[in-house]
Amino acid sequence: MDTVTVIVGSSIGGVRTAQSLRLEGYEGRIVLVGEEEELPYDKPPLSKSVLAGTATEASICLLNRDQAEESGIELELGHPAIGIDIAGNLLQRQGREALHFDNLVIATGASARPSPWGHRSGIHVLRTLGDGRSLRADLAKGGQLAVVGAGFIGAEAAATARALGLEVTVVDPLPIPMSRIFNAEVGQWFGDLHRSNGVTTIFGTGVEAIDGEQGSFTLRLTNGQNLEAATVLVGIGAVPNDAWISSSGLLVDNGLVLDEYCRAVDAAHIYGVGDVARWRHQKYGEDMRIEHWTNAVEQAACVAYNITHPENPRAYTPVEYVWSDQHDWKIQVVGRVGGKAEHAIIGHPEVHGRFAALYTVDGTNLSGAAIVNWPKALLACRRGMGAGITVQELRQKLEPMLTPQPLRTS
Amino acid sequence: MPVVKADLAACQGYANCVVGAADYFDLDDDGIVVLLKTEVPEAERARVVEAARSCPVSALIVED
Ligand SMILES: Cc1cc2nc3c(=O)[nH]c(=O)nc-3n(C[C@H](O)[C@H](O)[C@H](O)COP(=O)(O)OP(=O)(O)OC[C@H]3O[C@@H](n4cnc5c(N)ncnc54)[C@H](O)[C@@H]3O)c2cc1C
Ligand code: SF4
Questions:
Q1: At B20, which helix (H) or strand (E)?
Q2: ipTM score of complex
């Protein structure tokens, strides 16, 4: 009888696990179970090109029915998984019969952290295609947009809305945006970027309550100020979709807890991939969970390899990588940055139109980098991280590349 | 033999492909992908397809 791999979660992590299994020569059945009715779609464009209207919904489809059939991937969409019978190797679903599996891959991702100020229409989060559609529809009505949270998604959506011609205000309780990820100097430049593109920023201030209705909200801020807005986007992070797992007896701790090979610590034939996965990073000696696209793709490849090579599985030890597009900045972050890491900054946004902030945890070797508008530096950093380059060596390599070229500001 | 093709207009210079297969992909000074070779021997197929699929904007395909 064929073996069966059931994959739960029909987004980038789940789809790529299925495709990578076939690439590794897996010949058993592959069943992809998804809660959403939609065909699998990609999320990063939801705050960028799709929100801007420069890319269509069709262009972000990750797997259509023909491609699924060609690759022998059985799509079971529209019915969420609700539990796992580990001893019986069964995945329980809502409104459908349970599915038998030999291997189970959990790729249920994360959800937008819900708005603590109510959910009525006109107050948005941005995570799913449906969220994107309704936000886009409201932006098309015009009027002020208030974005609560200056993280990646809030900042991107603010930039996109600004480019669409809306008046946009971003509110964040942190005095310096992104300063949890970067250091203050770099964070400050992000604030400058928004302001120079016409976004109003209110930083160091939280939201107490949101009064009013769609089209005429009033945000009451913790500094006593009131902010009027037609539409509100709440971008305050994501929470892993792990509640449905914990009732089945698998260990869950802000994500499904996995070993270094991405296998559940208490069931070696159950794997985790993507935003929901908390695995042991062998090189860092820490349990980590990463909410970025490239991680979902790389972890999917690793899990597919481990399912097809159970006798010599590969430990998953990626270098973190995330990109973000805001206004005319292409921001890329590699490895470990910010926090207590020392840093050196090469280039300046206003002088060179690009910069790289290099971070070192041990005072010598590169541990991470934040790079804006500088592909060659990105590549040098991503390569150097693998080879163990020092900040000093990298600095000598990058500095001669800098030529003054003022950043365009609109 | 399978060949790898790049959509240079779509490429955004994320360098995921270079990290995935540095013997096939590089970046030029403008941060656009450069194909170092295009023919993919069957034995390397899985690795190169994986690297091509790691492109966030689907700028790379491996064709038969
Ligand atoms: C607007 C936006 C912009 C982003 N931009 C970037 C970017 O520029 N760069 C970057 O690196 N990353 C970005 N990300 C993050 C990136 O998209 C995620 O890291 C990635 O989607 C994670 O993939 P995943 O498959 O693990 O989880 P998800 O994409 O969250 O998918 C999980 C899937 O599982 C389904 N599911 C959940 N529970 C169940 C259940 N019980 N049963 C069945 N199915 C279930 C969900 O419906 C969903 O389809 C962005 C995310 C968003 C929302
Ligand atoms: S991964 Fe894609 S976008 Fe990035 S450099 Fe390669 S081809 Fe270009």
A1: helix B16-20
A2: 0.88
